[in-house]
Amino acid sequence: MKFHLFYLLGLLSVISFADSASNLICYYDSTSFLRDGLAKMHTYELELALSFCTHLVYGYAGLKAGTHELFSLNVDLDMFYYKDITALRQKFPQLKILLSVGGDHDVDEAHPNKYIELLEANRTAQQNFIDSSMILLKRNGFDGLDLAFQFPRNKPRKVHGAIGTYWKSFKKLFTGDFIVDPQSEVHKSQFTDLAGNIRNAFRSANLMLSLTVLPNVNSTWYFDIPKLHPHFDYINLALFDFYTPLRNPEEADFTAPLFLQDEQNRLPHLNVDFQVNYWLQYHCPPQKLNLGIASYGRAWKMTSDSGLSGLPIVHDTFGAAPGGNQIGSTEGLFSWPEICSKLSQNSSAPFRGDKAPLRKVTDLTQKYGNYALRPADEKGDYGVWLSFDDPDFAGIKAGYAKGKGLGGIAVFDLSYDDFRGQCTGQKYPILRSIKYFMG
Predict the structure, then answer these.
(1) How far apart are CA 173 and CA 189, in angstroms?
(2) HSE-CB for 262 with a 13 A CA cutoff
(3) What is the CA radius of gyration of the chain?
(4) What is the rounded end-to-end Cα distance, in angstroms, of the chain?
(5) For residue 257, which of 205, 362, 368, 419 is within the disulfide window of CB 3.0 to 4.6 Å?
């Protein structure tokens, strides 16, 4: 009897491990269809990726201020494109296709806090959001909704010298920590209630509900994890962009480190491991969590004061470097094929100057991430410092997620992976590496 009990427990543990890291959530930014040249992504170019993906998250819808209704951010595109996307299920019948709302794309300068206003709205006003969501999803054949609400972000880290660090510590004795949202405890409870109401309505309509925690949104402020997680089918933690050239223009560091590198006064929570453990500590089932990985990199402009080594933290940077030639619209942003094209393949290539490639530095510890650099020239020009997850490091993170027993990986997003195979001839190398290491 005892032998059979141990055998059963062992079998259950194997099954549990086999079921972990089975989700591959693929985000797709529909605006990539509107890009020019090699960055333009057609619907048919999704199909190879969808042979790996378990879920496709289409972004992005928006929230109407005042009425709190869900609506398309690009009606001219979406009125036809929604159906084209959901029709992909005919070729991939096991694929779940969700519509995401928010995701940093719903920019409304007149109502920057409209997602908070939705939480504060009365039950009747919130029902407008629920009803409009169900209509839009059902009418266009989506399987569910992803809540990527744009809540207020952490205050960016500031650069402090020795005197500045001392003064900051002294000042905190009187002012306390910086509070982005004084009503965060109220909003946390309101978000839990809203999620529960959405879940109840969606259950009767056979619709899924997922949550995306955007970068630098403090989970302690808005997510009552023990009460919240039962309302969602899964939760995607977008664990990247801890540092960006827009948030941290004066110093460059790893944008998505796996673990804390406990030196140079780094903040202990700006790493993947801390964030994952926080959700697990508050009893979120690991199989509900998906680790978010970016398929793009962030680049800072190095100056003549930034030095030559490139060893992070890199000080005296000057904001974002010029963006990639293909994406182009966002300074300091490079897709994976753009990164790959800039990395040096020639040991005799020039070290500095506008013609010099970037020199890759591989993280042999597999703890923090890779980076590449081109020091500024004698005049202080053409310097670049770039942090990124290449296919190899994305695979390392997939292995981490599997070891933690997480539900899987969420990729942000397909249009930044090498969907044309420009770098090595292999299409979707980041996605393939993740799938391989997930097993």
Answers:
(1) 29
(2) 2
(3) 22
(4) 34
(5) 368
CA-CA distances (angstroms) from residue 388 to 334, 339, 373? 9, 8, 11
pLDDT of residue 14: 37
pLDDT, tens digit (0-9, with 9 covering 90-100), for 250-277: 999 999 999 999 999 999 999 999 999 9
Give how far Cα 173 sits from Cα of 159, 169, 220, 242, Å.
19, 7, 22, 26
Residue 66's identity, in one-letter code, is G
Q: Considering Cα of 324, then 411, then 76, then 43, what sign does the dihedral take?
A: positive
Opening angle at CA 87, ends 82 and 90, nearest 5:
160
State which amino acid sits at residue 60. Answer: Y
Dump pLDDT digits (tens) for 32-91: 999 999 999 999 999 999 999 999 999 999 999 999 999 999 999 998 899 999 999 999
Model pLDDT for residues 104-142, shown as the tens digit of each residue: 999 999 999 999 999 999 999 999 999 999 999 999 999
Rounded CA-CA distance 144/133 in Å is 9
Six token digits for residue 61: 């819808």
Is it true that domain 19-295+389-438 has CATH number 3.40.50.150?
no
Residue 166: left if φ>0, alpha if ψ -120 to 50, beta else—which one? alpha
For residues 190 and 222, give the distance between their C-alpha atoms in angstroms, rounded to a whole number.
9
